[in-house]
């Protein structure tokens, strides 16, 4: 049976990953609403946002599929995406970086601690050697063997 702390760590990683994606989605929706309000205000020649009860409101231009820009999105009732709200490569890189940081934090915790106790210098050195080999883009089998050999040799030498 797996260690309960491992399960808690994986659950926390999953929650953090999806929370980060959700926060990005909500921020994108909020930005889309601000852009839509600003576009309505400038379409009339004014600088203030238009009121919702104005009878002379200019309808939003249709999207390429023929649906109006205010049509609900099938993913949850959000306004249809526009070029300003689509995921840009920079946003995708940032969200992917957040996931990598969360995974690295879980891996680092597993490398430094053995349950509630510190893991010992031999394991930390083995993880460090494995990380360097991985950054040098060595084959995975060599990375694993190098990390395991480093840990085994240090433990054989009496390093905890």
Automatic annotation (TrEMBL):
<protein>
    <submittedName>
        <fullName>AzlD domain-containing protein</fullName>
    </submittedName>
</protein>
<feature type="transmembrane region" description="Helical">
    <location>
        <begin position="97"/>
        <end position="116"/>
    </location>
</feature>
<feature type="transmembrane region" description="Helical">
    <location>
        <begin position="136"/>
        <end position="157"/>
    </location>
</feature>
<keyword id="KW-0472">Membrane</keyword>
<feature type="transmembrane region" description="Helical">
    <location>
        <begin position="6"/>
        <end position="27"/>
    </location>
</feature>
<keyword id="KW-0812">Transmembrane</keyword>
<keyword id="KW-1133">Transmembrane helix</keyword>
<feature type="region of interest" description="Disordered">
    <location>
        <begin position="38"/>
        <end position="89"/>
    </location>
</feature>
